[in-house]
Amino acid sequence: MNMTKTPSHVAIIGAGMAGLSCALTLQAAGVQVSVFDKSRGPSGRMSTRRGDGWQCDHGAQYFTARHPDFRDEVERWVRAGVAGLWQPRLRSYDGKQWSTPQSALERFVGTPRMTSPAAWLAADLPLTLQTTITQLQQQPDGWELTSAENGPMPQRFDAVVLAVPSVQATPLVQPVAPGLASVSASAVMRGNWTLMVQFDAPLALGFDGVFVNHGPLSWVARDSSKPGRTGAETWLLHASPDWSEAHIEDTPEAVAPVLLQAFAALGGPAPASYTAHRWRYADTSPPLSMGCAWDSVARIGLCGDWLNGGKVEGAWLGGRAMAQRVLQE
Questions:
Q1: Are residues 311 and 62 in contact, defined by beta-carbon separation less than 8 angstroms?
Q2: How far is residue 56's CA from residue 28's CA, in Å, rounded to a whole number?
Q3: What are the residue ranges of helices labelled H in the chain?
Q4: Nearest-angstrom CA–CA distance, 145 and 11
């Protein structure tokens, strides 16, 4: 493999925010990229479930923009109509008392759904979906990727970036870059149960989002209060990390009644319908702060929110930092 110049063709595994940010930064610098994702569409955990007459963001609930470069990026999304400012009525509940959190942070969401920014970013990228990369091998003419669906790919790549959860990165990099495998194996990822709850009419609960510091729930949000949303009145219930981990192997049928009972304690009535979803790899505790990781000899790297603070902003910044490392070669 040529180790003396900037890679001319980079494979990026993962089409979440980190992978898309990395791909676009490389593409803007004149590098050919190919993006692969096992899902049916880009976005990673900036995801939205759609059902019969309803939709609900069941991954990332909102994002903030502290870094000036990410603020500029979010403004681009807003101008394009794929993001908007969400101004919810927020409350906190500790099991006994209600309070109003004091924060000047602006909260943004994708519009008309959380997947919208990723879909917009991916529009001009060569993206191959429903392709699960299972093996990486260094051949004399470059990196060879093997997928579960189609076996070894004919094309070769000068470099590879893995923008996937740490637990998915470790088995891929262990045989080819043990140092990177040590990094990914050091990240402890936690699962999360979510419940998407539909109602026949809007609920008059007096809040659009609640930080819950008691019982099985950690967050409750009126998804229908977010800008651009249409369809049935829908709420999102996020279980707490500790409760989710303790019940990660439970069935949806066992999880849903517990979360609905906790919602009832906040004033929520019985729903018309609901859908449960288990995120096996939802977040990292604690998130790492490396930004990204790069093996300059093997020309393979890691990026993702788990390497940069655990938020959407961290994913975008980490993906850009990964691209800059590649371009420095």
A1: no
A2: 33
A3: 17-28, 68-80, 116-122, 166-173, 178-185, 241-246, 252-264, 312-327
A4: 9
Single pTM value for the model: 0.94
Place of tokens 């759609």: 50
Read off the pLDDT of residues 184-218 as tens digits, 9 standing for 90 and up: 999 999 999 999 999 999 999 999 999 999 999 99
Domain boundaries, the chain: 9-327
* CB-side neighbour CA atoms (13 Å) of 222: 25
Closest CA to 223 of 116, 311, 312, 113: 113
Question: 């788990």: which residue's tokens?
Answer: 306
Token pair recorded at residue 65: 């923009």
Please give the Cα distance from 316 to 46 (Å, whole number). 12
Residue 198 neighbours by CB under 8 Å, 6+ apart: 51, 54, 232, 233, 234, 271, 272, 273, 274
∠ at Cα 207 (205, 209), nearest 5°?
Answer: 125
User: Could you tell me if 227 and 109 are in contact, meaning their C-beta atoms sit under 8 angstroms apart?
Assistant: yes
CB 26 within 8 A of CB 326: yes
Place of tokens 């000036």: 68
Q: Which two tokens stand for residue 267?
A: 């004033």
Residue where the block lists tokens 């699962």: 191
**Other beta carbons less than 10 A from residue 134's beta carbon:** 14
* Residue 222 near residue 288, CB atoms below 8 Å: no
Q: Which of 180, 183, 165, 160 is nearest to 23 (CA)?
A: 160
Strand partners, 220: 210, 237
Q: Which two tokens stand for residue 198?
A: 């539909």
Q: What single-letter amino acid sits at 124?
A: D
Transcribe 123-167 into DSSP letters.
TTS-EE-S--EEEEEEETTEEEEEETTTEE-S--BSEEEE-S-HH
With beta carbons less than 8 A apart as the criterion, state whether 272 and 207 touch: no
Which fold is adopted by the domain 9-327?
Polyamine Oxidase; Chain A, domain 2 (3.90.660)
pLDDT tens string 244-293: 999 999 999 999 999 999 999 999 999 999 999 999 988 888 889 999 99
